Every structure is written in structure tokens, then in C-alpha cells.
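Aim 2, interim progress. The first record below pairs a target sequence with its C-alpha cells.
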Amino acid sequence: MVQQVLYRALVSTKWLSESVLARRIGPSLRVLDASWYPPGERDAQQEFRDRHVPGASFFDIEECKDKSSPYELMLPSEAHFADYVGHLGISNDTHVVVYDGDDLGSFYAPRAWWMFRVFGHRTVSVLNGGFKNWVKEGHPVTSEISRPEPAVFKATLNRSLLKTYTDMVENMESKRFQVVDSRSEGRYRGTEPEPGNEGLEPGHIPGSLNMPFFKFLTEAGFEKSPEEIRSMFQEKKVDLSQPLIATCRKGVTACHIALAAYLCGKPDVAIYDGSWSEWFRRAPPEHKLSEWKRNKA
């Protein structure tokens, strides 16, 4: 069997800083700030306008989604994605580096990383440590907004990296895929509420295992080593040689599972895009496991 050569999923702050100073940001290297925060907490766009990595553009995850869907952050169409990233100066030959400003070091960046990959783009990396460590280490920031020359991007959906509600229902019977839920243990079990006012109760899909996404990050906000990550999967009895689906609340932190597995040499983790947001609304009661109502009684 020929070993697949994987593109580097992470770039260091040092590498990106050297690229910025060498003026490499351009058609062959684009940097995207993919920050998003719950309304009323922080303003991602304003923070980007105030300071960002020089040459970076803002990747608005609220714009680059299927706005017709009743669920929270469903993938846009191929044409929508291609048009959106093309206007950010990204072509199929561009190395894309994504980051966000979350205090954890990484939150939404892996979602953007996965979105590029699911639309057929191989050369995409996450800034390890995020903007938090970029600033902490004293790398350059600017408030200057760059205006990249639009480029042509051709998006081709890789369906093997994406799972639908129907796929998940089928998997309940076939059990062909292992399923890992990346939310906190309390939300997974149903002992703590789902955030927001969308009427979602906590709980999980039967048969899914729980691996909270933040445990893949060090306290300082960097990805843990592949060795540490591998032992985390082993501890949960997740077999990285077998098919795996990641799920969460809305398909965001599930991408941390995909990134973690990728760092261990497994590039084929699929994301259930609708995740719990969709499953809770569509699945019959017996397919929603939760301690929520029991605790409320």
C-alpha cells in the first residue's frame, strides 16, 4: 500500500511571521481570519478591523454558508464557496493559512480548514496557536485592510468528507462508521444546557463517543503532539484505521476531531454537517440520548 503524502495541517507562528516579513502574502499564500463569537460576547469583524496578521482577509463564516438551511452553519454550494473564496484572492494554486482569535488558541479555524478540504483544496493549514499566540509572541499586526485581486477558484465537493442526516440514520443500523462527538461531556450527556436560545436540549446520538475538542489543545493553545493525540483516541477505543464520523453542535468543533486525526495520518474523517442542531430536530425520541429531562424532573 502506497503511503499517502499529506499536506501540512499546521504552520507555526514563526513560519508565518517569516512569510509576512518576506512579503510572501499574495496569490500563492493567503491568510484568513475565521473568527466567530456568540452575539454580545465579542465582535469578530471589529476585532479584525482593529488588528490582524498583515495581509490577512476576514473569512466570514456567516456569509460562507447555506443561508436557506434551517440549521445553523451548513456548507454553502460549490458555486457559493468558489465565488466567496475567489473574491478573497484564492485560487486552486493558493496555500491558505487560517486562524482565529479565540482565547483557547483555536476554535473556528479548523472548520474553515475542513471547508477548503471538503471543496477539494489540499493546500490549507491552520496557524498553530492562533492569533492569541501570534500576539503574545510579538509578531506584527496591522489595522490596514488588504484588497486582494480576485482569483478563480474551482470547488469540487468531496462527498467522502461530508455526512448527512440520512447517512447518520443508515449508520445507526450498519455501524460502519465510528462516531465521535466533540462537545463538552455535560452537553453530550445532557447534564448541562446547550448554549443560545435555539430551543436545543443537550444529549447525543446513540452509539457516539465523547471527546471534547478542547482536550486536543495544550493550555497555551497549541495542538497537542500526534503521540498525545493518538493515545487520546486509543484511550477512548477509537480505531484510527477504521471509518470515523465527527459530530458536535453545528459542525464546527467536530472539525477539531478531523484535524486531530489528520495529524495522526488519518485524512478521511467525515463531518456530520448538521450535527446535533439537525439531529435533535429530526430524529425520533428514541434516537436522542440525554439525562436532561431526568435531571429536570
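The second target in this work package is listed in the same format:
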Amino acid sequence: MPVTQGRSRRDRNNVLNRPEFMSLNQPLKTNNPEVRGSGRRPPHKQQQCQHQAPENAPQEPQENNKDRRESIKLPEEDCMQLNPSFKGIAINSLLAIDICMSKRLGVCAHHTSSCGSMRSIVNMLALTGHGIPWIVGTIWCLTRSNTLAGQEVLINLLLALLLDIMTVAGVQKLVKRKGPWEMSPSFLDYLAMDVWSFPAAHASRAAMVSKFLLAHLVLAVPLRILLVLWAFLVGLSRVLLGRHHLTDVGFGFALGYLHYTLVEMVWLSSNTCQTIISTLSWMPLF
């Protein structure tokens, strides 16, 4: 009697014995006689079906499978990095700010821009930092110079200008960064190999020339201030015209100062300059 009472109490306390859960205790009703006799299919039959399925299924050629895998793969630029590094986030954020600010400052990019009426003036200011006028002007001054000191300074300035043009053209060819407004280069830009945006060739040249003239010419204080202001405005004019980003101009200024430092390190003496001039004396300009 105590055993039967304990069982009856456990049956009453069992949750599955409640009316709403009675269906869980009933066996699964199926029309398949094999499943009705046993709750699941025998393992040896499952293995037979697994072995027979590949034999009966049509075999697709391997080429179709490869094409299907390649079509599923997404290109790398469309894949999202779920865990980007902090460095990558910071660089992408700075680049986005640079592009946004450069486009906002490009107020003279077109004639229909907010300051399109000043486009011609800004173009003239940017032309003062172009490489072709500086090279032609330096050669012309060299042909008119009669002093050894003047010829020495002009030869080294010409060397610095050529170094600046070649270095900037090489870096631009490697980086191939487009401007904020993606404008086509002019004829003079093609001559000076100033085709891409990074770094800004005008800013590099202006910084190098201004530093060179400040170091080797005796100028009054107002002229020295105007020379530094000119270099800054040349770099700014390229941003206003929509040709370069702000970072392009900044790196251009740094590259120009580097060019000046290199020229000062390999400064050609007066004797070397006279040798170069005598070698080029067969040219009609000299």
C-alpha cells in the first residue's frame, strides 16, 4: 500500500499527466508502416539510402560547380569588414573629412560655382607656381647673368626645379589619386607631368622656391613676408580650383621643403657650375 500511494502521488505531481500535456505522451501517428512499427528508421536502411542517393542523383560537371562557386564569391570592395582596426577607422575618417572639406572649398572649380567670377584671377595666381614658367625664367636669367655668384645660384635653382618636377611626377604616378572634382589636366600640366592630385606640384614648387630665395637672396622684411604669403596662396588656389585636396597641398609643402634640403646638401660649387655652363655653351640660348 505505501508503494502504490507513493506512485499515485508522483503521477499526480508529474506535469506531463496534466490534460493539456497528454498529447505529448501519445505516440506519433504516421502513415508509413515502417515508422509506425518503430519510432525511427533502422540505421542500416539509412546507410543504404545514403549510399544509393549519390548513385541515382545526376552528376553535374565540375565546370558548372566552379562557375557556381565563382558567381557566389563577392568582390573584395563589396565585402564588409566586421572587425576593422582602429587605425583603419581613423584613416578612413580623416580621408572622408579631407574630401568633404576640399569639395566645399572648391568654390572656383567651375564658372557656375559660388565664386566662379574669380576663377580667372585664381588661375593666374596658380600659374605663378607652375613648373614651366619657372624653368623658362631661370634659364633666361642664367643667360643674362654675368656674375659667378649669380650663375651659381641659378644653376642650383634649376637643379632644384628639375628635381621637384621629376619627384612629384613619380609620386603622382605611383599614388594616382584623383582630385576632388576630377578635372582633366591642361596642356601645361601635361608638359610638367602634373596629371594626378597627390602631391600638389604647385604647392611643392612654391614652398621650395620661397625657401630657396629666402636663403640665398637679401630681401627686406616686407618682401620676405610677401614671399611666404605667395607660397601659401599658390597652394590654396589649387584647392579653390578643385584640383587638389587639402592633404595634397599639405604633403606638397612638406615635399618642397625636403627638396630644398636635398639641394642644400648637394650644393654645386661655382667651379662645377662653370663647367656645366661651358658644356652647354654650344646651345643657342647660352
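The chain is about 65% helix and 0% strand. This observation will shape the mutagenesis plan for the next reporting period.
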